[in-house]
Amino acid sequence: MKYQTIMCHLEEMYGLWDCLKAVTECTIITTDGREYTGRNLCSAIRRPEQCPREPGEGYEKCETVCKQLGHAEEVALKLALDDGSVDGATAILRGHTHYCKECQEALFDAGISSLRISHNTESGLDMDNG
Q1: Which of 24, 45, 86, 105 fits 40 for a cystine, CB–CB 3.0-4.6 Å?
Q2: What kind of architecture, by CATH, is found in domain 3-129?
Q3: Which residues, at least 6 apart from 31, have a Cβ–Cβ distance to it below 8 Å?
Q4: Mean pLDDT per segment of 10 residues, for the chain of length 130 residues?
């Protein structure tokens, strides 16, 4: 089953939904080719009609109001580590311009060797080294 089909099924089953402001996705590719993708999904029972954050406001409401499961990087890393080692793996971030300090540290501490940013959400091409 393709990733998109699995994610749609899980989102429906658990009532998860994409962030209303920005969809961020992180894919970890291990040295043996396994791929683990996480997104910044939210789980609040009542989905707001618009993002509750005002311009310039911090990210506290992502957790308190929208019940965001975590950064896309955190979700992908948990999925990958639950299945084995990520030593030497590459992380590719889509939908955002940078990895936060905490996610960088977590990824490197787990054994990820390369962080990249993709500017193309469909194909993963046009990557910069992070």
Answers
A1: 24
A2: 3-Layer(aba) Sandwich (3.40)
A3: 87, 88, 89
A4: 46 69 91 92 84 87 85 93 94 94 96 92 46
